[in-house]
Structures are given as C-alpha cells and as structure tokens.
Design goal:
This protein is an alpha/beta fold. It has helices at about 20-35, 60-70, 75-85, 110-120, 150-170, 185-195, 220-235, 235-250, 255-280, 295-305, 345-360, 375-385, 420-440, 450-470, 480-485, 490-510, 525-535, 535-545, 550-570, 580-600; strands at about 45, 55, 90-100, 100-105, 135-140, 170-175, 310, 315-320, 335-340, 365-370, 395-400, 405, 475. The structure holds arginine (ARG). The site of arginine has 8 residues, from loops.
Length: about 600
C-alpha cells in the first residue's frame, strides 16, 4: 500500500508520467523555448558518459542558431541560462554544465521516487500508444504434412514476441499462422495415398455419396507419405506428373480430393497446435493458403478488369517494376498470378490472403515474420497489392530474419543431414538444461517432477532468449551449452534473477515484512529505478522496428541493475530500518513485475523456484 504522506506524492506536476526521461525532456524543451529557441533541439537523452544519467545537448544547436541570427553567444552561456530555468522545476536534481555546453542532468530523488511508485502500482505504465492500430502478424507459416523444422522456429519465436510487444502497446493484434497447405505437397500426398490405398472413396471419380468424417490418415502417415512421394518424384518424371495432375485437379475442385485436403488440414492443425503449444506460441487465426482459394477467380477477374495484368508466354503476370529487365534480370521481377499450366502460385495465394484480410479485418498494418530469403517474394507481392490499389506500401512490412546455423555456419541440420524436427530440438534443449541443473546442483532437493518442469522452462527460455537477443537479420549458431549457461546474457540468467526476487518476497512474507511505499535514497536504488524507467522506450523501439532484441537488452540491463542493488542494499537484514525494508522490498516487487511482464512479451516464463 502506498501512503499519501510519502515523498512520492510531493510533486504536484507529475501525478502521472510516462517516464522520468519524458518528464525531464519536457522541462528542458520548455526552458529552451522560453529562451527563444526551437524546443526540439533540447531533447533529453540517456547519457552515454558516467557523469549523470541524462544529458541535454541543446545549447550547442542553440549557439548555431544564434550565430545564424547574427548574435554572438557561446554555448556555455546558453547552457547556463537554460540551467537556470530548468532548475526552477522541482523534478530537476543536480544540473551541471560540461565541456562546450553539455548539460548533465540528475533527476530529483522525488522524481525517481514518484516514478518508482508509479511502476510499482502499474508495471505497464508508459507503454500504451496514443493511437492504437489493427495489426495482423503473419508468422509461423508451417506447412501441412511436412513436419515443422528449425526453419519455422525463428518465425514462431520472433513472431510471437512481436505480436505480444505490439499488444502491450495497446494495438489490436491478430496472429495468423498462415499455413502452407496449397501446393505440390498436397498433390504428393494425394498421389501417394492413391497408390497405398486405392480403394478409398476419395479416389473414385464417380462416387456421389458423403465421405467418411474420420480421417483415413494420421499425422505419422502424412509425415511418411510426403517424403516418400517427393523422393520418388525427384528421380521419376512420371511419378512427378501424377503429383502435378493431382495438384491441378485438387485446385480445380475435384470433390474427393477436396474432402481429403480437409482431413489433411485437420490432422495437421491438431499436430501443429501441440507443437506450437509446447513452444508457448498461440495463434488467433488458423488460416492457410487453401482457405483463400475460393477468392482467387474473382480476384483475377478484378485485376484483369483493372488492366494491370499481362500475358507472358502463357502465364498471367503483373508487372511491378518499370525498370525490370528480363535479359539482365535487374530490378524486381513480375508477380506470377497463374503459371502457363493455369496453376495457382505462391504469389497468388499471398495476394488472395491480402484480399481476404482486407475484407475480414481491414488492418492498418500487416507484418510478415518470415525468413529473409523470401524478401523478394514479399517485395513482389507488396508491389502487386499496391498496384491493385488495395493497400498503401507502408501498410505492409516484411520483418525478415537470418538463419539458425550449425557450428559449420550453415543452416542447422541433424547429424544425418536432415531437417531437425522441432520436437527433437526441444528435446536437445531439455537435455542441455537438465545437465546444467545437475552439474550446478540447482534443484537437487526437489522431486523429479518439479526438476523436470524446471528443466523444460530453462531449456525453452534458453532457446528463445538466444534467438531473440540477436538483431533479427543476423544469423546465429545453435549452441545449447552456451544458451543454457547461468552467467552472461542468457535466458537462464534472467530466470535466475526472477526466481531470486520471488524467493526474497517469500522470505519476507515468512518473517512478516510487508512492502510499503518506495523511497529512493541509495545510488544503487536510483540506478535501478532509472533502468526500470527505460522499459517504455525499449518497447517503443522494439515495436517500431519489430526488433525484440532491444527488449532483451533492456531486461538484461534491469536484471544487472537489480543484482547491484541487491548486493549494495540489504533488504531483510537485521539493522535495516523498517521503512527502508518496506521500500526496498517494494522496489524488488516492482522489478519482479517488470521482469515478468517483459519476459512474458518474449514468450518466456519462469519457475516459482529453482
Ligand atoms: N509456408 C511458408 C514456408 O514454409 C511460409 C509462409 C509465410 N507467410 C506468407 N504469408 N507467405 O516457406
């Protein structure tokens, strides 16, 4: 409980602020404006030098402006005038002019205290944007029939984090898995199943009755049928032709094949829900390529009527770049709407999906979290959609990412050279985490079930944090041992920080110490509050460029500030005054809330203890 006599409430001007930085920023801007300079030159930022936590470099720009006006003032003088004005505000602590005219800013203790109490009562304060948007995040992108592999891992992990970060800002965000369920792989499945079980009614072209509601295949069957067919087709052109024909007939609506497709999708979705669920990834929409197929004929008619399609060697295309040169292949190649065989292509289904989303959701923005190797595909699709007049270019964004590589620097494969299935990857992480627990003696006195649950959480946190802490475009190397270390910038280090605070809070409850109002005094306390205050900015940056690593960076910094605070400021020790205990405990509580909130945005959850 906060008490009103606390210094938290002494600042009448800052009853609700979005951050300490924004508060200081507003004061500095007002000071420069009052001196006759444009306020934006006075922006306050976090300082990169150790002298003070914040700085304002407006005086240098102001001197430049004054010079243009023919006045002769040096920046230090301007800084001195600005400092005098800023000093009048009680939110300002020490102000100091350095070098040619930098203003080093230390906030008043009362401002730190006020903000700390605000964060304590609402860990999300300062996160919401003024104008929330409707945003679709297209991620996951697993394919029906083919088991999920590590290539889908990054999309799922990054996409989930991006979705949650945008949601934390108050946007209305819809996550769509956009399954790959409409290509040659379907033809492979159908042709292979025809050979295996020719008597199924789905293959009888004359069959008029209802089809069985029970699927004739399981997920294991699908995982077996697809590689079998695709391998045969590689060396046998006749076999490939069977798959092509089956695909074409499916796409042109052959009844039995459509019924089979439904089964394949249902069986796959059930399996994918388990796979993604284990990864802590949830989708609002389980749509895919197949479900927009009915929109394609009208879409194509519309595009033709708009006069933007062309015939090109039997194919139907949209030119999306005046400078495209088919000879040198310079520029952006055309969108392929229909192949010369009449088949629908990857461009086509993505365009039809844009039509569907416009009609069903009318989003302000669509973010595609897909492998960077598909960058050209999205450039073509986006240009097509803009040319069609459906979207503005800035409503469509491809958030590409690099690959997770093996130690050889190539996209990660199993020892046998195959794609690693997601469940096997999770198994590797679980084992690495278990080894880690074992060797460090953590949880040695817990029962097997709890230890196993802890290992699962550590393995997942290790994997996700290792993935998310990289700038999304960079490739990184899969190194389970390094990922699961308890020291350094790792998932387990952060879980450890969370668990440590939880144990302090438990201990406090046991000995009857309650959290009270925060009153910031010690340097390490101030540092911690300043770290916590940067949360909203980290979220904003992470959201603006779809880069969760900025949030990872922030959380890591908070955990480190907490460590220093904990080392320097005993919380429950004998001899600590009661109000100091209550304040420090509350600060620990506020830190925990933010760490848990931030980790949750990254899709990471901590155990109760370890
Ligand atoms: N299924 C595709 C693949 O495995 C990814 C889908 C990405 N999303 C999209 N709208 N194209 O490569």
């Amino acid at each position: 409980m906060l008490t009103a006599n606390d210094s938290a409430f002494q600042l009448d001007s800052v009853s609700l602020m979005s951050s300490i930085l924004s508060e200081l920023d507003a004061i500095a801007r007002a000071a420069f404006e009052a001196l006759g300079y444009p306020p934006e030159i006075a922006a306050v930022r976090e300082s990169d030098r150790g002298d003070a936590p914040y700085q304002c470099n407006g005086a240098m720009a102001a001197a430049g402006i004054a010079k243009k006006r023919g006045e002769k003032v040096n920046p230090r003088e301007i800084a001195a005038q600005a400092v005098e004005k800023m000093q009048a505000n009680p939110a300002m602590g020490a102000l100091e002019i350095a070098g040619p005219g930098f203003i080093n800013i230390t906030p008043a203790d009362s401002l730190l205290t006020s903000r700390a109490n605000e964060l304590l009562s609402d860990p999300t304060s300062g996160l919401a944007v003024e104008a929330p948007k409707t945003i679709v995040v297209d991620y996951g992108g697993a394919n029906v029939a083919k088991p999920m592999h590590v290539g889908h891992l990054r999309s799922a992990v990054l996409g989930e984090a991006i979705k949650r970060i945008l949601r934390a800002q108050g946007h209305d965000v819809i996550g769509d898995v956009h399954m790959g369920d409409w290509g040659l792989q379907m033809g492979h499945l159908i042709s292979e199943l025809t050979e295996e079980q020719p008597d199924l009614p789905y293959f009888d072209a004359d069959y008029q009755g209802d089809y069985p509601s029970e699927s004739p295949v399981s997920m294991d069957d699908l995982a077996r049928l697809y590689p079998a067919a695709s391998n045969k087709a590689k060396s046998d052109t006749d076999r490939m032709e069977l798959s092509r024909v089956a695909t074409a007939q499916l796409q042109s609506g052959r009844r039995g094949y459509r019924a089979l497709l439904e089964h394949f999708i249902d069986v796959s979705v059930a399996a994918l829900k388990v796979g993604y669920g284990n990864l802590g990834v949830e989708f609002d929409l389980w749509k895919g390529e197949a479900c927009v197929d009915p929109l394609i004929p009208d879409m194509i008619e519309g595009l033709k009527a708009a006069g933007i399609t062309e015939e090109d060697e039997g194919a139907l295309i949209i030119n999306v770049d005046d400078k495209w040169d088919p000879e040198t292949r310079k520029g952006t190649p055309p969108v392929m709407l229909l192949a010369s065989s009449g088949a629908v292509l990857y461009h086509t289904t993505d365009l039809a999906t844009l039509v569907d989303r416009k009609a069903e959701i009318d989003p302000d923005l669509i973010v595609y979290v897909v492998d960077q190797r598909q960058a050209l595909h999205f450039e073509q699709v986006f240009r097509g959609a803009v040319k069609a007049g459906w979207y503005e270019r800035d409503q469509l964004f491809h958030a590409g990412f690099g690959t997770m590589n093996g130690k050889d620097g190539k996209p990660f494969k199993t020892r046998e050279g195959g794609v690693l299935r997601l469940e096997d990857l999770m198994g590797i992480m679980y084992d690495a985490a278990s080894d880690r627990l074992e060797s460090s003696g953590i949880g040695a006195d817990f029962d097997a079930e709890e230890r196993s649950e802890i290992a699962r959480k550590i393995g997942l946190a290790a994997l996700k944090f290792a993935d998310l802490q990289n700038q999304r475009m960079t490739n990184y190397i899969f190194d389970p041992e390094r990922f699961t270390a308890f020291e350094g910038k790792t998932g387990p280090y952060l879980l450890y920080a969370v668990v440590r605070i939880k144990s302090i809070l438990r201990k406090a409850a046991e000995i009857g110490v309650a959290a009270g109002a925060i009153n910031v005094q010690d340097d390490a306390e101030k540092q911690l509050v300043i770290s916590l205050d940067a949360y909203g900015r980290a979220i904003e940056l992470a959201a603006d460029k779809y880069v969760p690593h900025v949030l990872c960076e922030h959380i890591y910094r908070v955990a480190q500030s907490f460590s220093r605070f904990y080392a320097g400021c005993p919380i429950l020790a004998d001899g600590v005054a009661d109000d100091v205990k209550a304040s420090r405990l509350a600060l620990a509580q506020a830190t925990l809330s933010q760490l848990e909130h931030g980790l949750n945005l990254l899709g990471i959850s901590a155990p109760e203890r370890m």
